[in-house]
Design goal:
The complex is a heterodimer of chains A (99) and B (97). Chain A has 99 residues and is mostly beta strands. Chain A has one domain (2-82): OB fold (Dihydrolipoamide Acetyltransferase, E2P), CATH 2.40.50. Chain A has strands spanning 2-10, 24-29, 41-45, 55-60, 77-82, 85-88. Chain A is globular, with a radius of gyration of 16 Å. By secondary structure, chain B is mainly beta. Chain B has a single domain (2-95), classed as EutN/Ccml (OB fold (Dihydrolipoamide Acetyltransferase, E2P)), CATH 2.40.50.220. Chain B contains one helix and eight strands. In chain B, the strands form two sheets. In chain B, strands 1-3-4-6-5 form a five-stranded mixed β-barrel. Chain B has a two-stranded antiparallel ribbon with strand order 7-8. The chains are: A mainly beta (99), B mainly beta (97). At the A-B interface, strand 4, strand 5 and strand 6 of A face strand 1, strand 2, strand 3 and strand 4 of B. Strand 6 (85-88) of chain A pairs antiparallel with strand 1 of chain B.
């Protein structure tokens, strides 16, 4: 699963069976410093609330369709959450500072 | 399976139901010498791992759903172990704890 920024909306009136009512958004995958990485992809909106400008996380491959009500549909990327914050942490309960 | 290091957490209130009540970890992936290879992955924690720890990651959907115990869920990457040592070519490249 990867971070991505929603950069646009895709409108398609003719779609494969099962994709009726599914919202498609154009998203730009990001690296962990929230910088663009690779080419934009079209992702189905599995949370029904994502919109342009938002930071989200996406899941790829076969698991993408599992985010939708009908899980046997031809979808290869889906938005599965809207990110409130990415918190970078250096050390936790079982580790000492090592960097 | 992949080797990674937990470097952060992702906070999300609006998400697919499978992620509710679960911790999302931001993990750098490590190469065979134990250094970050430049890529990362957002993983669901299943073992209570914490920041800075070297972890074992599965990036495959059906295994992930099996561990989480849901037959249908849009989840792919999960942390399934905390690494104590990584030995490559008889050399200790990671020694944790």
């Amino acid at each position: 699963m990867q971070l991505a920024r929603v950069i646009g909306t895709v409108v398609a009136s003719v779609k494969a069976d099962g994709l009726e009512g599914v919202k498609f958004l154009l998203v730009q995958p990001l690296d962990r410093h929230e910088q663009p990485e690779g080419n934009p992809v079209v992702a189905a909106d599995g949370v029904h609330m994502a919109g342009p400008g938002e930071l989200v996380y996406i899941v790829g491959a076969r698991e993408a369709s599992q985010a939708l009500p009908n899980t046997f549909v031809p979808v290869d990327h889906a938005i599965v959450g809207i990110v409130d914050a990415v918190e970078e942490l250096r050390y936790g309960p079982r580790t000492e500072e090592r960097r | 399976m992949k080797v990674g290091r937990v470097v952060g957490t992702v906070v999300s209130t609006i998400s697919s139901p499978v992620f509710e009540g679960r911790r999302l970890l931001l993990c750098d992936l490590l190469d065979a010498s134990g250094h970050p290879d430049g890529s990362y992955m957002i993983c669901v924690d299943t073992v209570g791992s914490g920041a800075g720890e070297a972890v074992l990651i599965i990036d495959e959907g059906s295994s992930a759903r099996q561990v989480i115990g849901m037959s249908s869920a849009p989840v792919r990457a999960i942390v399934v172990g905390v690494i104590d040592q990584l030995i490559v070519d008889d050399e200790l490249v990671l020694r944790e704890g």
